[in-house]
Amino acid sequence: MIDFSLPADLEAERDRIRRFVIDKIVPYERDPRLTAHGPNDELRQELVELARAEKLLTIQAPVELGGRGLGHVEQAVLYEAAGWSTLGPVAMNCAAPDEGNMFLLSKVANPDQIDRYLMPVITGQQRSVFAMTEPDGAGSDPDQLATTATFDGTNFTINGRKWLITGADGAKTWIIMARLAANPHLPEGPTLFLADGDAAPAGGIVIERTMNTMDRNYVGGHGVVRFENLTLPRESVLGETGQALRYAQLRLAPARLTHCMRWLGAAERAQSIAVEHARTRTAFGKTIGEHEGVSFMLADNEIALHQCRLTIWHACWLMDQGHKARHESSMAKSFVSEELFKVADRCVQVLGGIGISDETVVEMIFRDMRAFRLYDGPTEVHKWAIGRKVLRK
Does the keyword DNA damage apply (predicted)? Predict the structure, then answer.
């Protein structure tokens, strides 16, 4: 049986989150602390406290760690509501990269690591990063990982350079991917390590700079980072040595979908602004919405939003049933990112001149949405993986 209905309590919570974002969070969209590199930590903390007061902070965390233990479909419904403003997920502590990092740590970290590195992120006290992407290739193709780790039987020493590390500036919980060299003590290969951001810079983590990018929705922006003889104890290994790529996949499949959920909410916001403009703006004797050129764009948006929502829900339903859904999450990430970018682009077109200005939030959504086509794997990489699976059938 296929049932697309939502439980009444889930609908009520969706509506409550949307109202919270509209009433409490949207007013911060013109706050000067929303910088060219995203909201700063002072603004983030203020937003977090608003969500905490409404008992909406980190609701996705496992029940045993203080959250509600949401299923993937429940996340899809509630994250879409939160995404009405790009600051909504920041306030509710379900934005990238923290949301994906919390998921990974809850699955792989041992009890001591949970207390030290995960719980402060769950409670909103600190932020986290996932340091994998490198200037010379490692990113979509992690096999090109060049950051190295050596082990002397007691400590690891990490050296290498990363970039596009979201939230690096000011983050305290660091998940670092490095290639462990052959040694007589532990299995070699790509490995995840946990480090304390307070080690920067004297302790071996050097943040060279924050990159100038077209998006500005992530706290701390995207950093260029260098590890210079970063020394970590044996207990810093996250999971098992040599298993980083497997753990990365564990993190990426649901993270792809949560990106889709949040940006669906932002695209809905853009559509609502475009629709209102089309209802009130006049040209050639009638509202512009009465002209087919405009009404067809709004219709295409409505169709795309509906298709994206169903695609997300299906992949989430599969994961809730216990399936890995890597193929379906790749299809969702590829399809949804491309379609929502088209939605944002059409909204700019409907708005005309003001669409390229900051008179509305649509301009920011459009720029941020462009980057979404690259987050957690470019469209072309996902299509390549999808094509390989199709050919193997």
Answer: no
Q: What is the dihedral of CA 17, 21, 22, 23, to 10 degrees?
A: 100
| Burial category of 391 from C-beta neighbours within 10 Å (exposed 0-12, middle 13-18, buried 19 and up) | exposed
Distance CA 154, CA 147 (A): 20
E strands, the chain, are 34-35, 38-39, 128-131, 148-151, 155-166, 173-180, 189-196, 205-211, 222-233, 282-283, 286-287
Q: Which of 141, 152, 167, 138 is nearest to 229 (CA)?
A: 152
pLDDT at 297 over 70: yes
- pLDDT tens digits, residue range 80-106? 999 999 999 999 999 999 999 999 999
What are φ and ψ of residue 293, in 5° steps? Answer: -55, -35
Q: Which residues have a Cβ under 8 Å from the Cβ of 32 and sit 6 or more positions away?
A: none
Residue 61, both tokens: 């965390």
Q: At what angle do helices 244-280 and 292-320 cross, to 10 degrees?
A: 150
